[in-house]
Amino acid sequence: MRIHGFFKYPTAWSFGRLLKSSSKLPQIPHSSHHPRIEAAQRTSKPVIVLIHGAWHLPDVWIKVKQRLEAAGYEVYAPRLLTVVGPEPVDYSWRVDVAVVHDLVLPLFEQGRQVVIVGHSYGGVVATASVEGQSIADRQSRGLRGGFSAVVYICAFPIARRGFSLLSTKGGDYSEWTIKTEPFKKVPCSMGVIPDAGELYYSDLPPEEAKEWRAELKSRYQSQRSFEEPLSFCANDIEIPMTYLLCEGDKAVPVQSQEQMVAEIPGMKTRRCTAGHSPFLSQPDITTEVIIEAARNT
User: Fold this and answer.
1) Strand order in 241-246's β-sheet?
2) How many Cβ atoms are within 10 Å of 221's Cβ, its own excluded?
3) Environment class of 82 (CB within 10 Å of its CB; exposed 0-12, middle 13-18, buried 19+)
4) Ranges for the AB hydrolase-1 domain (predicted)?
5) Cα-only R_g, the chain
6) What is Dmax (Cα atoms) for the chain?
7) Rounded to 5 degrees, what angle do the CA atoms 259, 48, 219 make?
8) Is beta strand 267-272 parallel, antiparallel or unpaired with respect to 241-246?
9) 267-277: per-residue pLDDT in tens?
10) Which of 51, 64, 177, 193 has the most C-beta neighbours closer than 10 Å?
11) What pLDDT digit, counting tens, does each position of 27-76 carry?
């Protein structure tokens, strides 16, 4: 178990068993004088799993995680394995789905329901993670628990089978991405140009934005994670879905977000004026949208 800030996340992962499960879960401390009552209240609410985007780590969720926990939710923010160092890798989104399943399958076995929240690239991971693991899917196999809702935050839900994040974008990378030729299946860890932080943190106070931009310099993203197609898409999902449209987003413009949502008739939408990182610049409304989705399951 590694610690990044106050986020605990599993890092062990088997390349031979993408869906392995763990019997040991991270524990979230609490200070109640009535632990049995608090445990019962917490169990009655779904667990919230927060999935970060490309080139980022779980600590971007710090403000939202604190607010959700204050509202009585059990919250996890796993670290995705496609966010790497500069050495070339060839990891698809499948390794990130394995991380999610490693976390949630033991929770499902306890009968817990889970709301999964995906930001940006994390939307790909959220969609793929739901396949075969909704409450109804698991009930049909005589199993307990399951995903009860999905929340996308200026994310890529992937509306069509056979599409990837990159093909959803039209097949072209943004000009601020440092990569190799697309779809050649050559191991590559993509970087971003120094000015990319302006797109991610455009509506943060200058000093806070500066701190987050500094962290991007050492972050890389497996190129294959953007190019691997999905055989299961958002239109296959049969649990409630909500999309938070971010009108000030400079990395994934709101017009692109709206176009993706328009292809998924079952998607409920909420709007905010935030940029690409609403969990940092507008954590209250981000938390509100997540709690609303959790209450409506």
Assistant:
1) 75-76, 47-51, 113-119, 146-153, 241-246, 267-272
2) 25
3) buried
4) 48-285
5) 18
6) 58
7) 65
8) parallel
9) 999 999 999 99
10) 51
11) 323 333 333 334 444 568 999 999 999 999 999 999 999 999 999 999 99
Output the DSSP codes for 92-121.
-THHHHHHHHHHHHHHHHTT-EEEEEEETT
Alpha helices in 169-252 (DSSP H): 196-200, 206-216, 224-227
Token reading at 191 = 């970087």
Record the pTM: 0.86
If one looks up domain 2-14+34-295 in CATH, what number appears? 3.40.50.1820
Kind and range of the H or E run holding 221: strand 220-222
Tens digit of each residue's pLDDT (9 = 90 or more) over 202-221: 999 999 999 999 999 899 99
Return all residues near 288 (Cβ < 8 A) that are at least 6 apart.
none
Residue type, 82: T
Under DSSP, the state recorded for 276 is S
Domain ranges of the chain: 2-14+34-295
192 Cβ contact partners less than 8 Å away, ≥ 6 residues apart: 55, 176, 177, 178, 216, 219
C-alpha distances in angstroms, 12 versus 42, 62, 93, 178, 189? Answer: 27, 23, 16, 28, 20
Per-residue b or e along 200-216, where b marks 16 or more CB atoms closer than 10 Å to that residue's CB: bbbbbeeeebeebbeeb
> Which H or E run contains 260?
helix 254-262
